[in-house]
């Protein structure tokens, strides 16, 4: 209870400061969102560089149709085999269908989108892959008020399951949402479970987390504060797990299983992920869109893990929808 009051107090303080330094709750406050996202990208990269011991490269780019971004990339690091933390702020005409999936009436409008998106693939098979993104959209058309919404979330994809890791990740996800109402975390957890699901395999991508989209209820200030809380909790959710698992000894068997399971990650991103589809449909920068792909992946025909093995336990005990906390 004390922890919940503390979290609510922190968010209330953030809202007060936000009201002082920004304009009214309207899409014109997008400059404040952009400033926050750029700062978030740098804070996350700094935390990850401290763990890996190797610097992320910087690739700044421009989009001919409007806007651009900054991709922070690491490949063949000490901990990360590949990882990307990208910021983008792009705009264009004719909002792609993937961005208006739940609001078909917005298709074809002028649009502006900004966000931070990351995927990290550690080399050690005992260290899980992780994804996080927070984003902001504006859709506009002449003669009508612009329509805005936030989206985002984070989810964990282990190759070898540890219940303590899953519980920690879900606990921090819940902490990020506590101040916004007791009903928010259960709803966003279920949304994550339902979204990160490979329908053609009939299995979850990982152990879940939280996911939300089309968020504009409660006004701009509340929605922006929620987005900030999700982004600000990422390092706390993931880095302790990474530090615990990155140096565990492993062999060819574990490495082989990791590359096999990475295939599921690729399948989801290329078939179902709305962010990937939006980037490709909107003529986005392919290198930055596909920086989420793992560097080494394998597929096998109709393979099943040995009964009773750690690999089988991933399927039976972790790749299921369950309450972790």
Summarize the structure.
Residues 265-300 are annotated as: Important for dimerization. The record marks 200 as: Important for dimerization. With 325 residues, the chain is an alpha+beta fold.
Q: Can you give a write-up of this model?
A:
This protein is of the alpha+beta class. It has a single domain (30-318), classed as oxygen-dependent coproporphyrinogen oxidase, CATH 3.40.1500. It contains ten helices and nine strands. It has a seven-stranded antiparallel β-sheet. A two-stranded antiparallel ribbon has the order 7-8. The protein is globular and about 65 Å long. The two termini are 16 Å apart. The relative contact order is 0.15. Mean pLDDT is 88; it is low at 1-27.
Supply database-style keywords.
alpha+beta; oxygen-dependent coproporphyrinogen oxidase; seven-stranded antiparallel sheet; two-stranded antiparallel sheet
At the fold tier of CATH, the topology name is oxygen-dependent coproporphyrinogen oxidase
The backbone outline, from C-alpha atoms, is: globular
Strand content: 15-25%
Rg value: 19 Å
Mean pLDDT: 88
The level of helicity is 40-55%
**Major sheet: size, sense and barrel closure?**
7 strands, antiparallel
Task: Write down the secondary-structure element order.
Answer: HHEEEEEEHHEEEHHHHHH
Number of strands: 9
Our count of domains comes out at 1
Helix tally equals 10
Ranges with pLDDT <50 over ≥5 residues? 1-27
In CATH's first tier, which class applies?
A: Alpha Beta
- Level-2 CATH architecture: 3-Layer(aba) Sandwich
Terminal CA distance reads 16 Å
Structural class: alpha+beta
Which strand order does the major sheet show?
Answer: 1-2-3-4-5-6-9
- Under CATH, the homologous superfamily reads Coproporphyrinogen III oxidase, aerobic
């Amino acid at each position: 209870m004390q922890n919940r009051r503390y979290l609510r107090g922190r968010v209330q303080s953030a809202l007060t400061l936000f009201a002082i330094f920004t304009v009214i709750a309207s899409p014109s406050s997008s400059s404040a969102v952009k400033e926050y996202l750029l700062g978030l990208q740098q804070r996350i990269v700094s935390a990850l560089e401290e763990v890996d011991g190797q610097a992320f490269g910087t690739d700044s780019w421009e989009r001919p149709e409007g806007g651009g971004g900054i991709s922070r990339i690491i490949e063949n690091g000490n901990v990360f085999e590949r990882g990307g933390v990208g910021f983008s702020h792009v705009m264009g005409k004719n909002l792609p269908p993937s961005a208006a999936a739940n609001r078909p009436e917005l298709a074809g409008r002028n649009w502006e989108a900004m966000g931070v998106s990351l995927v990290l693939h550690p080399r050690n098979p005992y260290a899980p892959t992780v994804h996080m993104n927070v984003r902001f959209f504006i859709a506009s058309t002449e003669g009508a008020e612009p329509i805005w919404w936030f989206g985002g979330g984070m989810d964990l994809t282990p190759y070898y399951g540890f219940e303590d890791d899953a519980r920690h990740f879900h606990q921090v996800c819940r902490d990020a949402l506590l101040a916004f109402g007791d009903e928010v975390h259960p709803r966003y957890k279920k949304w994550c479970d339902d979204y990160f699901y490979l329908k053609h395999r009939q299995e979850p991508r990982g152990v879940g987390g939280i996911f939300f989209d089309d968020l504009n209820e409660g006004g701009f200030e509340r929605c922006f504060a929620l987005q900030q809380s999700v982004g600000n909790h990422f390092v706390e959710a993931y880095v302790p797990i990474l530090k615990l698992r990155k140096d565990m000894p492993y062999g060819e068997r574990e490495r082989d299983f990791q590359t096999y399971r990475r295939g599921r990650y690729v399948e989801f991103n290329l078939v179902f992920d709305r962010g990937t589809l939006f980037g490709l449909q909107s003529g986005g920068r392919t290198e930055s869109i596909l920086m989420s792909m793992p560097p080494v992946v394998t597929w096998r025909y109709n393979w099943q893990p040995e009964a009773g093995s750690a690999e089988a336990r991933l399927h039976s005990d972790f790749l299921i929808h369950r309450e972790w906390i």
